[in-house]
Write a structure and sequence with these properties.
Helices cover 25% and strands 32% of the residues. It has helices at residues 10-20, 41-56, 119-132, 185-192; strands at 25-29, 32-36, 64-68, 71-73, 81-82, 86-90, 97-99, 102-103, 108-114, 137-142, 147-154, 159-165, 170-172, 182-184.
Length: 198
């Protein structure tokens, strides 16, 4: 792909950069191109732990699936899309591709983000974008403050319910995701802590 011209759509730049920076995640949130570096091992371990919790719940694969890094088209701007770390989606998601390998937000029952270098992106900007997209459940594993956020009941630009949990608590996710899933907050946060030298 040739270098995009400055007058080309932002999504063209995102695609061009993605080809040249394997492992990085490029998203367009509120018309701004956002880049996230490749995840560290603790970030990946959180996703594994959450996936295991879903698998133990024996989710009905004929109705919903758990997937990683599947893009959702956002109604916040003409080119906006996000790539959640993990999602619970309708089993027929392949019938709902919009464009640029992004799928309609109506197929997403839950999205989950594990904070990286810029927690504000997940806690504020993506929370607004996912609410505008009417995604029913948004889970944030906040590694910096060691908290688990569960946002439900999306309104026009925010979630009506925002519950915060700490180590020592467990949380049952809404049944609307298609399974009875309970997360042990201490286990998720323990795995998700960034490792330090020494």
């Amino acid at each position: 792909m040739p270098t995009p011209r400055p007058d080309r759509p932002l999504i063209t730049w995102a695609d061009w950069l993605m080809e040249r920076n394997p492992g990085h995640r490029f998203e367009i949130i509120d018309g701004v191109l956002v880049v996230t570096p490749p995840p560290d091992a603790p970030h990946a371990e959180v996703l594994t732990d959450v996936m295991v919790a879903y698998l133990r719940a024996e989710m009905d694969g004929s109705k919903a699936d758990v997937v990683q890094k599947v893009a959702v088209w956002l109604p916040t701007g003409p080119e906006d899309y996000a790539i959640p770390d993990l999602s619970v989606v309708d089993a027929d998601i392949n019938a709902h591709m919009v464009e640029n390998n992004c799928y309609a937000p109506s197929c997403f029952r839950l999205v989950l983000e594990v904070t990286s270098e810029n927690p504000d992106l997940d806690l504020r900007h993506k929370a607004r974008a996912y609410a505008v997209a009417a995604i029913p459940v948004y889970v944030i594993v906040d590694r910096k403050d060691e908290l688990l956020h569960i946002l439900t009941s999306p309104l026009t630009d925010r979630y009506d319910s925002h519950q915060v949990y700490a180590a020592g608590q467990s949380v049952s996710l809404p049944d609307s995701i298609g399974a009875k899933v309970t997360l042990d907050v201490a286990e998720i946060l323990k795995t998700g802590r960034p490792k330090t030298n020494g």
